Amino acid sequence: xxxxxxxxxxxxxxxxxxxxxxxxxxxxxxxxxxxxxxxxxxxxxxxxxxxxxxxxxxxxxxxxxxxxxxxxxxxxxxxxxxxxxxxxxxxxxxxxxxxxxxxxxxxxxxxxxxxxxxxxxxxxxxxxxxxxxxxxxxxxxxxxxxxxxxxxxxxxxxxxxxxxxxxxxxx
Length: 171
Fold this sequence. Notes:
This protein has 171 residues and is mostly helical.
């Protein structure tokens, strides 16, 4: 039974990793990647919520541990429901992903490994999107550089030809 559960978790995680990796070619938006990561984590781990925090993993864990208003018993149950992972992406500020399970249970090693793999792939995709943006824009002005501007102009000319509409370029 446990081997079947492990295979199911890994199969779901692999499908999720493929979908996340495909976003590197389909999207330029980090929010799209984060939304996809939330969907995949919820499918793999049956989660109640997924939250992103603009801090490192340790700070996020300390912050969620110190939330007021809950009795000690409730905090202990929440501790059993929570997993904090770090979304490590080079050249980006640290970001933590806080996973909250629907019920108090021990997440198995397979589930933690699968969640870690999904978060790591999302971090790589976010890093690629950031590198793509940096490669296409001038650091000082934030405008498209020559290569990116010519590629964008080519796309707009092709669109204008397809739709038989005029196109203009102001420089």
